[in-house]
Design goal:
Elements: E1 2-4, E2 7-9, E3 17-22, E4 27-31, E5 37-43, E6 49-55, E7 61-65, E8 77-83, E9 89-94
Antiparallel strand pairs: 1-2, 3-4, 4-7, 5-6, 5-8, 8-9
Length: about 100
């Protein structure tokens, strides 16, 4: 919790993560709380970037399909963000996919 005078903010860090990037299918995979809405972004070495909002499946897994949105390559990176009601986020980022 962050407190300064009358102002305070609290963030409960959520269990989220990126597990795979598939450059051939241009998809990013991961996990987050079941039925949550998450923002997933992907970028490549050419400076192309795209962010999409997706719903997490009931089993806690998700797949973000970037086909036609950004050229996902073997040098791409990806991130996931799960925002709370006042705009704070739990995030994970990976750039070491193979």
């Amino acid at each position: 919790m962050l407190t300064e005078g009358d102002f305070s903010r609290q963030l409960v860090v959520q269990n989220i993560g990126l597990t795979e990037i598939n450059a051939k299918a241009e998809q990013v995979f991961g996990y987050a709380p079941a039925n949550a809405n998450v923002w997933v972004e992907a970028w490549n070495e050419h400076g192309e970037f795209q962010e999409i909002n997706i719903s997490v499946q009931h089993d806690g897994t998700w797949v973000a399909d970037f086909a036609g949105l950004v050229d996902v390559t073997y040098q791409s990176g990806a991130a996931i963000h799960l925002y709370d009601n006042d705009g704070d986020a739990s995030s994970d980022e990976r750039t070491d996919f193979e």
